[in-house]
Predict the 3D structure of the following.
Amino acid sequence: MIEARGLSKRFQDKKRGEIRAVDNVSFTCQPGKIYGLLGANGAGKTTTLRMLATILEPTDGTAVVCGYDVVEQPEKVRANVGFLSTATALYPRLTAQELVEYFGRLNGLDEATLKKRVDDIFNRLDMNGFRDRRCDKLSTGMKQKTSIARTLVHDPPVMIFDEPTIGLDVMTARTITAFIRECRDRGKTVIFSTHVMSEVEKLCDTIGIIQSGKLLAEGTLAQLRQNYSENDLEEIFVKIVAPHYVPAEAL
Amino acid sequence: MSARNIGIVYKKELTEALRDRRTLITMFIVPLVLFPLVSVGFGAAIAALIGKAKEETPQVMVIGGEDSPAVLAGLKRVPKIQIVPLESNWKEQVVNKQVPVVVEIPEAFERNLEEQNEQTILIHDYEGDLKSETAKDKIEKYFNDYRDSVIKDRLAARNLPVAVLKPFEIKPHNVAPPEKSGGALFFGGFIAYIVVFLCFNGGMHPAMDLTAGEKERGTMETILSSPISRAHLVLGKFLLVLTTALVTAALSVISMAISFAIVNTLHTKPIQAGESDTALHIGFGAALSVFIMAIPLAVLFASVLLTVASFAKSYKEAQSYITPMIFLVVLPAIAAMLPGVELNLKLALVPVLNVSLLCKELVIGTYHWNYIAIIFVSTCVYAAAALFLAVKMFQRESVLFRS
């Protein structure tokens, strides 16, 4: 369960002054559901998710993840969250197994549990072929699997995906979307960000449309279709965002 | 929980560091292979050059002296010089280093001697050139001896004892133990310099790789999403940087002790007559105490390196910040090598310089316990402040996510 309550993030920029990257955003993600955060580049998706994962601290407002406040108990929050983005790279000089074990230990797993968990995950994701290969020698697909294994090792109830398929080929991207569905089916709370309409249509139970740091619309696909009397998600998105849109280059 | 987490990070960073070629090179290859090769090789080359210059028979041209056959004959008997015929462009030949020295004997030298007139022998040499100076020394010695014999004859002619000219002797008597004399002090300063430099150098690459490098590779976001606190994370990283700095420092002390032992066996005879012929060596006690003093210094270095490097966005940017810092670190260590720069209460509080000066004393076996205490404590204070700063910096979003 994730509850964002008036989540805000302001940055000071020397040239442009104060920037409201995220501005008073509130939403709720339920267990066993996928919440999709849809927005253009620079809309505030990454900053929002980073605040939920406690990588960044909110300037105002807060969020409660699995009953823990992101400001008050960030370490507890992180122990209950699996965070995956294309920016979360792997340590090049560790093997796939060492990497997953490292994150298991940081999550407080004892050696016996860790071994069981790692064996289980490596079997499930079919990773035994490159268990002892260094991460810098892995293919993109293998790297993605290792990243997935990393987020799963502590079996977190909440999964946060920040544009997880960006820059991936179709086959690898499908591994990720399949994994997101699996997380939902296992009853995890899932939130993910993207700017790809088709992913949202296929995956999301609830869609939040974000632009200029503000959550402009929220609802199921059916609700959005009804409210904006459009069938195509892209048309709906443009209708909502256009009045607020500032191209990323202008920022 | 906290010690466990720091340990987990440290172990992982160690695993990665030991698989990183650059870390291995700065940590092991530089102190164990490169440094002894350079120092032994350099020392051997200098010794060989000086030896060669001394063995060589320099050519000497003589101006005048045709009317002073006795002096000329004596000059020809000076061992290991060769008198060659004068050429008109002799000055040019000295300048071009074709002839090391030209001796100018004034006209009617011997007659003037008889008549006890003042006169001057000129030795045209090339100052600073090793060959020219050795030749000049030989000629000068010959004429000095010749002058002494003339004085003796003159005194004898007047029935005066030699003591008339030398009512008393002045003679310095060195009571400093040979291992603590000037040459050894410089040597101690040199060791301090090497330890300071290699200690800093050993921590440099890992500090940049573990902070700016992680940002650049995108692993920073990965690790920040794990439950470990940022303080524990930076402490684990700090311990690794400290390890590499200390291992580099320790190996450099050990390898120096070994390479000087080798140099000593290679050149048992003193390099220059008159210079103290103390063998350059580092005892076990000295090596150990230098290493102990290097510990707080390594903490200081590791913390400063981490603080600066974590500010950078990429490894390259970190390099551009840290490379100039080498000069800041090395400068006080060089200052400590200068003769006359000695420990005092004020200098004992200057970071790096204080440890360098102390190491210089430690190497020659002097233990000023009050200074040792002041320097150890003050360096620990600086180190703690720097470590505190490193931890604080690492917790700032504006530093970790600088864009």
Q: What stands out?
A: The radius of gyration of chain B is 31 Å. Residues 215 and 221 of chain B are 8 Å apart (CA to CA). The longest strand of chain B covers residues 59-63.
